[in-house]
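Posting for a labmate who doesn't have an account.
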Amino acid sequence: MERTRWGIIAPGKIAAKFADALHAVDSAELYAVASRSSERARSFAEIHGASQWYGDYTELVKDEDVDIVYIASPHTFHAEQAVLALTHNKPVLCEKPITVNHSQANELFDQAKRNNLFCMEALWTRFMPVFEKIDEWIATDQIGEVQMIRANFGFSFQFDPKGRLFDPNLGGGSLLDLGIYPLTFAQMVLRDLSPSKVSAIATKGSTGVDENLGMLLQYDSGVIATLSSTTRANTGYIATIIGTKGKIEVPMFWCAQSAELYSTDRAEEVLVDKAEFPHFCNGYEWEIQEAQRCLANRQLESTKMTWQSSLDVMKIMDEVRKQINLSYPDD
């Protein structure tokens, strides 16, 4: 089987997990890594088994043996680095959020289309196989008509004004890093319908970015999604889909490996079914497999993570930031 040779831009913690997953996926090969620091790139290559390393991103995308580039840098560098790869004829898998705002994302996908190249946002939740079972439960009327969606996502982080989560120059705040997950969960459940109304409130920290964020989405169908994110506290990680005659609970929903189906016809909740789809590595393998499948089939985008899906979530996040009065230099 022909191997897909991956190049990684920005060798940080996420890139390390992604590299581990590459080793677990058949036909995937970690071929090259690039950093602004040659020493850091060489160290990552030695630890994770890449045969090539570069102290310059352009050198990596010029390497003819790189089949696809994975971008793992902070949010504000995504657009620039993705365009760099695309203009050197390299397909792209870019960490979420794919860009800082809707305008950047739209320009990026336009570039991919012009170059006839695959491009996909690496929002791993979209690729977890358990969501196929969840879709089946909803489609076969196991919970009746969906009425409400609840999802919260947050961790307690130590404050660092220059850190990625708190620095507005790096796209800091809970929304782009954490809030994107409950937003994506709601959009997945509702098959990427656009909300008719978005309401948002936030508590900002000393650097001006959102540290506590609440979002309320209303859809034309009547469904209401109650979503939140925070960098100040560890939240519960069970997302819930509530229907007229049942509900679905999804533990650790952003990297879900299981889901539970309950009947709620009466006041008592009865467990009806449980689905389990464990990761065979660390969860990043699913997006790697999907990217490689798309490349093999010469697809420009994935049906699981379409360009429009990315644009829709980015549009919602732009509206949320507008309502909480949060802007970034790239805006």
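Reply:
Got it, the structure tokens are right above this. The chain has a mean pLDDT of 97.
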